[in-house]
Automatic annotation (TrEMBL), chain B:
Origin organism lineage: Bacteria, Bacillati, Actinomycetota, Actinomycetes, Kineosporiales
Protein name (Swiss-Prot/TrEMBL): Ferredoxin
SUPFAM superfamilies named in the record: 4Fe-4S ferredoxins
InterPro entries assigned to the protein according to its UniProt record, in alphabetical order: 3Fe4S_ferredoxin, Fe-S_cluster_ET
Alphabetical keyword list: 3Fe-4S, Electron transport, Iron, Iron-sulfur, Metal-binding, Transport
Superkingdom of origin: Bacteria
Cofactor: [3Fe-4S] cluster
Physiological role: Ferredoxins are iron-sulfur proteins that transfer electrons in a wide variety of metabolic reactions.
Amino acid sequence: MARDARCPFDPPPPLHDLQQQAPLTRVRIWDGTEHWLVTRYEEQRELLADPRLSSDVHRAGYPRTAAASGTTRVGFILMDDPEHARLRRLVTAPFMIRRIRAMRPAVQRIVDELIDALLAGPKPVDLVEAFALPVPSLVICDLLGVPYADHDFFQANSKNLIRVSIPAQQRGEAVRNLHDYLAALLLKKAGQPGDDVLTRLARDVENGELTADDAAGIGVLLLVAGHETTANMIALGTLALLENPHQLDLLRNSDDPAMVSAAVEELLRYLNITHNGRRRVALEDIRIGETLIRAGEGVICPTDIGNRDPRAFDHPDDLDLGRDARHHTAFGFGVHQCLGQPLARMELQVVYSTLYRRIPTLRLATGVEDLPFKHDGAVYGVYELPVTW
Amino acid sequence: MKVLLDQDKCVASGQCVVAAEAVFDQRDEDGVALLLTDEPPDDQAGDVKQAAAVCPARAIRYTTD
């Protein structure tokens, strides 16, 4: 469902109406199948944490986002425990809070150098190309052990992978390209080990804990999710702040890490860029409030509208960097919640506390109405953000 | 306050460490949560409640007297 072009930061208006009517409603999706649409915060959290709901895209009744969904295994997202937990735990260590904190000075250096380059270069400039994409791409490449020199290749393919509107064949091709690329890198790592995640995965393959195919799939997932999402939060977050100058001033004038951290949580809640809805299928009958979800029925939880539920957040449609929004579900909820969230949070804290202070006169170089928004992707954002200062 | 942690459920999101650093830590090899104390002092109660509320795997429970 597309967002309204006039309110680019808000969930689609029909979701708002449905949320007022009832916590769950029946909806028909693109392929003609009917599913439960969950629009309220509490019910979404309840269901996303319920092990009686399956994430397995191959099960009958699963609400697919497109015809090509699930044709190739991309990491562990579209599978259930215990297989999901086993694969996920192989790569959780690098995302521990302690390790992410240790990476912070390196991320600060990357951000500072990119801003130096921005200030020394021509203007106006596209902030997506010159800053929002390079920051998380450089960070995830370093963490995974992927050569950043290949960024044109993997960024182009990632973009297609998460685009729902392009033909299934083209999407499948993007997944295969990335898969082959990671598989080749993993083979190289076996001979030239480094201190990175791909080396660990290569070792797991050698030890027989992981198939080469699954290792490449996990690599694709970490690489794509590690840069696409954060890049969109940087660019769209900047746009939202430029449109709310009083809120932007709060960030620019504060050097309190707690304030910056709260601002990041609020922007995650408010923008909720993964806007296609978390999808599940019921394995058993589940009663939630007045509603009975029957075994085999699909469930869609769009967290963008859940995070705008007035039952969970006061004045939810206001961007209020001073509020406590930590309980938002922009990273999902339940066992599938985003694995990279500590990294994403740290990157956003560094970016939001640095960019607007170092370029205090940063402003849009075009009208909001001329910006190309990503209505057609699994991750929402802007394709370009021309800025000047 | 008494805190219970189910490590089998934990998905290593680390959110408990962010919310209540004096009560939770993470295991080096896989980031699974560790309970530093199962009877934290009263002034930690708010942090523990926050940790339980944001835990995506619902692996943290607590009882209060």
